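re: ur question from the group chat, yeah i did fold both. here u go
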Amino acid sequence: MSAEGRATRDARRETPADNHDVLLRGGRVLDPSQSLDEVQDVLLRGGRVEAIGRGLGAPDGAEVIDAAGHVVSPGFIDVHCHLREPGREEVETIATGARAAAAGGFTAVCAMPNTDPVTDNQAAVGFIIRQAQRAASARVYPIGAISVGQKGESLAEFGEMVGAGAVAVSDDGKPVVSSQLMRTALEYARTFGIPVADHCEEPTLAKGGAMNEGVVSARLGLKGIPSEAEEIMVIRDILLARRTGGHVHLCHMSTRGSVELIRWGKERGVRVTAEVCPHHLALTEEAVAGYDTNAKMNPPLRTADDVEALREAVRDGTIDVVATDHAPHHYDEKEREFADAPNGIVGLETALAVLVTSLVEPGIVDYAALVEKMACAPARVFGLPGGTLRRGAPADVTVFDPASRWTVDPARFVSKGRNSPWAGHELTGRVLCTIVDGRVVYRLADR
């Protein structure tokens, strides 16, 4: 896509509606994009960041929010979630998903295309954008399918989808089995300046698996998925990205071997970025021991050694972003036998707290690194507005209390989904306020 076309697309996305002035007073302003970590005020005007400084005055009629003792950061961005609409509106809608995102501090999310019908054309992309505009909550950026109908046979029309507002392509939920199709996708996507986000899974190795293959799966009598099922596709994608010069983004990484391969690719200048989910940073395969279907996801929870490697990869920058892979399911679906239950958990409303509890409190990363992985890097990797509090940037802001301890109660989720492994767990870190385009779209005090 040309620079002119991209500017037109971004201008359409960023058009503010019903903005008013907001002054965030006395918070710890944490913006890694500016190496900023100071107690200051933040003034938002006309849907943009107007100023950051001490003792800023509030314009007439401005809303003043006391942020003392709290962190004020660029709005979080989730580059990987499933909003289920169209096709499964009883499970989640774009509106409920966008509101759940805001409750989790996310000012923007990228919606995966495995809907019914599949988001594989410009009309489907346009539908998602219109529904998100009606919801007037977190921004929603559609991700188009790589292949028509996600069948892995022929490429979808990338150009039309990007022109309609798609920010990436992916067949997530399904791997791109054909290496030739993946190569062509990388070449084609490169011309539009978008990443190809791949679900790395070698299907013949993963077939029938319900959890990580190892001692625990043997003890539980469940068929396992070996780490090589992920790693084979990781190295394939890296090699194809090296061949084509395209940008491959590797979804929901889960193994030590994948980390080592990504590091290998980056050391050689390959355009590879990668994400990890909060659950893969916090839980191991032992969570499956009670046959809890809320511990069933794809890729599966892995070993303590894998978790250690993933945490180190977040710390050293090998993993670029943290993404939720928010995947709501109906209660009855998750009540099946473990092997028959669908994969996935909801994650938008617990992501911050899980990461604070599992990464920040143990001293693995600090809050600046956390904001980098949740806000700044996602914007940079996917070429999205936001991810910074620089003057003139979109007024997308997250305010959170890093010390607040709370017990997760899925019945109080904004999302329609309740399938969370954190039910009843006490976590640290809570979102207090989420601002999109200068409008407060979520406030904990209103709950």
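okk and heres the other one u asked abt
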Amino acid sequence: MSERPMLADNTANTKRRALLAVLGAIPLGATATATPSIAASPLAVAIARRYRVEPSAVERVVALAGKYFPADPTLLLAIVGVESSWRPWAVGQAGEVGLCQVRPDLHGASATALADPNVNLRTAGQVLRKCLSRARGDVAGAVARYNGRGAPAEEYAARVLTEREILVAMLEGWTF
């Protein structure tokens, strides 16, 4: 009797599992067109136009960011823009999942759960608060920690902070 070979737990398998989990979390009855929100905020409309996503979905994420990271929701929204371009089904190279590209193996939620924007932003908010604490309030340092270490993390932090400035300008009435 021959045994099936065991697959090594490598990055490709992690990515595959994360993608399958995200696809499994998408409701089967989802329609291609959603009804636009009548009362969408100007910020949500601007973000939706910039990233070509539905304003009502942006409204939901904006509300979640305010709920899970009330200290600076625009910072969490900037992470969403940089990490996933507002695509909740995004899967990263190391198995990161969802809007904020949270790693299931590091942060205690399954890949399927992280496909839900509510769980994803709650977990990302917790991680970002811990990063801020470790960085002793230094926002740039905290955002770099959110991503990793070294020069690539610092470049990532610069992109996120630039995105945050754009979001703040959108809030103040500027258009991009």
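fwiw on the second one: The first helix runs from residue 11 to 25. The two ends are 64 Å apart (CA to CA). idk if thats what u expected
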